[in-house]
Amino acid sequence: MSSAAALTWFARHEVRLAWREWLAIIAGSRGKRKRAVIALIVFAAIMHLPAYAVIGRFADLQAPLGKPELIVITATIFLAWALMLSQAIESVTRVFYARADLDLLMSSPVNLANVFSVRIVAIALSVIGMALLLSTPFVDVLVLGGGARWLSAFGIVVAIGLSAAAVAIAITVLLFRLIGPSRTRLVAQIVAAVIGAGFVIALQVAAILSYGTLSRFAVLTSDAASAYAPDLDSPLWWPARAAIGEGMVLSWLMAGGLLLLGAVMAVFSPRFADTVVRVAATTQSVPRGARATAFRGGSRQHALRAKEFLLLRRDPWLLSQSLMQLLYLVPPALLLWRSFSESSAAIVLITPVIVMAAGQLAGGLAWLTISGEDAADLVATAPLPPSRVIRAKIEVVLASIGAIFAPLIAALAFASMTQAIVTALGIIVATVSAAAIQLWFRVQAKRSQFRRRQTSSRLATFAEAFCSIGWAATAALAVTIPIAAVISGVMTAAILAATWKISPRRD
Amino acid sequence: MVRNEQLDRPEIMNADVSALEVRGLTKRFDRPAVDALDLTIRTGEFYALLGPNGAGKTTTLRMVAGLLKPDAGSISILGIDALADPVAAKQIMAWVSDEPMIYDKLTPLEYLEFVAGLWGIDPAVSAPSAHQLLLSLGLEPHLHERCEGFSKGMRQKVALAGALVHDPRLIILDEPLTGLDALSARHVKGLLQERVRSGCTVIITTHILEVAERMADRIGVIAAGRLVAEGTLTELRQQTGRGDTTLEDMFIALVDAEAAAA
After folding, report:
1. Of B94, B126, B142, the CB nearest to A285
2. Domains in chain A: boundaries
């Protein structure tokens, strides 16, 4: 086989793998794929409504744009780029650590630089593909409202996808060189989480500090932002200008993206193999500092709880996810802090944000403790009833959520005791709901499958999300319109009851 | 039956009681996996359960360990009805699967501490026992390393140490020597024989017939969910009418005969 034919063959293999991975994430088992694809199309159609609400008013924008419009569009594109970068870093880390075929590839008589070049392109394509999918409803709305010139927004998605993949590879390989392979996985996951959430949060923090509101548009459309922004002919505005239909600028950006990715491939592809070998070497045995070797006493449930807490502490994926959840709590916490000195109705917004974050975090924790049991046989053959095992695991979820959110509730109590009580109740109910759903839909799995926990049951995933949103809304309404909270609470409880009714474990 | 206060475990009063007594044990999946199986294993015996792939060995032992519910039949472990009182039965039993399931993020010592805690063993007893076990399995240099980088053999040894740390009376091992190097396999065999000498009962499944031939007091051959032959090596030779043949030849003859009869 010639070198070009081998490359094409391997590219086809990569595309097939990526397609099947994507299908598995979207649809789970093979039998459900057709239904999942239909559901996805329906979902995409429905997404046009919120897309219209968010972006419809920008459809009439015409060149030349003023600074406020350029700032808003550029910030939106930058946000999309940050999210793509986050996804790309995650993909690169997975290629280094998780692909089961690395041994096969490394031991085969192929040119590894070529193989990894194809893999870099595959990462870029998967990032771009996902971004195109998510951006389609928004671009559709702009095209329908403002004409075909907005189709160039798809080109922008491709261009920033190429550059995001290139930067992600550079960041990850540099992390390897700076902090070594063993720490890179954790740091890369945290960096990905921070990059994904950081930009939005930074805008919100700036908005709160300057204007006392959670709206990020307050900063972007302010006079101060316009004053500090560069002139209209600055290259900084090229992505925004390309998005509204300037074909030449779009061509430059796409060429730049391709050039960047090509440069990264040329520089890093030959080194990918070394990096993978170094990862394999460090996963052999990492000596840890010896601690006291005396065993601690306690009940059997205590042994289970201690093990769960230890494993949660040592779970890098959970740490990065928790960090992201906590980052999202920074703006409301800041709002809370500002509200001590000046009375503000905005403080009510804190309650749903906290309840929602608690529900989401509890869902992840509950999956890890209840379903993600690596030694299922051991626990099942231990001399204690299954009900006590489950109880100990749920206690771990409740205690973890309590430890994370107690300081916020305590701070809230200084501002408003009633709101603090309502928020605490909301956290408890959202946590118990999330744990109950995980319990009803539990499927034994390895903790390393955490990324794919959503695919084991779509129903559980949606129920968990709807309940989190429902309890968050109920808590917010309880502070503002108590009678509406009753209705919202009953509706959320009904969702939970319906979930239980159709769950496989209700018997 | 009384309970040992310190270890919170049932103390078996009658030394003559069978370590395992299975009657009419049945389990169906798409087809019968275990078919009205009767099996009696005496206390202090080293018993090897052999059979071709899919014969029902692992299903049988998983039901005994409480990991699968039988469709019919009874299981008695040292006089305890394992279906009526699974917690009491589990207290005196250990199960090691062929695929060692341990926690990647724990060190061997932390894993053994957890297992001892699950079985309610006094730390003053379990800590030195854990050290001794890991030492005898050659894991001393790795006591404080997380298991994530361990080879399959090392993981198997950690899982075995976990099974022994609570000093069980009945140890069930599914393919315990798979993936072990010669030295490790000798360590494991030595440990198991030592346990048998101290009165513990060991049941293993294995495809390495030489292990069964050299170590087992009695051998059971299972095919299509039924016990087709059982006894010491000499008794098996008599049953098959093959004077001085090897276990491998007898095993193949028995399995072939069963397949032909089916």
Report:
1. B142
2. 32-278, 299-506
